[in-house]
Amino acid sequence: MCTGSCAKCLGITLIPLTVLCIVVNILLFFPGGKVAENNDHITDEVWYFGGIVGSGVLMFSSIIFAAVGVVGAGYCFVVSAVAINKGPKCNDGTQWLYPFKDG
C-alpha cells in the first residue's frame, strides 16, 4: 500500500521536475536573458547538458522502460492464461498431448 502511494507521488513530482531541468538547462545558454555574443560567455557546465541528458533523456527513458515493463507483464499474463486454459502436456505412454484441452 505504501509503495504504491510512494510511486504515485514520485511520478507526479518527477515529471514536472524533469521538464523544469530541461528548461533551466536551455535558459543557461542565454546568460542575462540575452543571446551570448560568443561561446566564451557561457559556462563550461552548460555544455555538459546535465538538465537535458541527465534529467530529461534519462528520466523519460525510464518512463519508456516502465511502459515496456507493463507491456511485458501483460504479455506474460496472457500467455499464462492461455497455458492454464490448455492444461498440462502429458505423456500417455505413446505420445505427448494435452489431455484436458477439449474438456
3D architecture notes:
A hairpin with a 4-residue loop joins strand 1 (90-91) and strand 2 (96-97). 5% of the residues are buried. The chain contains 2 helices and 2 strands; from the N terminus they run H-H-E-E. The model has no long low-confidence stretch (mean pLDDT 84). The protein is rod-shaped and about 85 Å long. Helix 1 runs antiparallel to helix 2 (50-86). By secondary structure, it is mainly alpha-helical. This is Transmembrane 4 L6 family member 4. Belongs to the L6 tetraspanin family. Keywords: Membrane, Transmembrane, Transmembrane helix.
Name the average pLDDT: 84
State the helicity in percent bands: 55-70%
Assembly status: single chain
Task: Please work out how many helical segments DSSP would assign.
Answer: 2
Give unreliable regions as ranges. Answer: none
Sheet having the most strands: 2 strands, antiparallel
Number of domains: 1
User: Tally of extended strands?
Assistant: 2
- Please compute the radius of gyration using only Cα atoms: 26 Å
Structural class: mainly alpha
Strand content: under 5%
Order of helices and strands: HHEE
Straight-line distance between termini: 40 Å
Within the largest sheet, what's the order of strands? 1-2
Shape: rod-shaped
Task: Give descriptors for this structure.
single chain; 103 residues; mainly alpha; two-stranded antiparallel sheet; 2 helices; rod-shaped; Transmembrane 4 L6 family member 4; L6_membrane; transmembrane; transmembrane helix
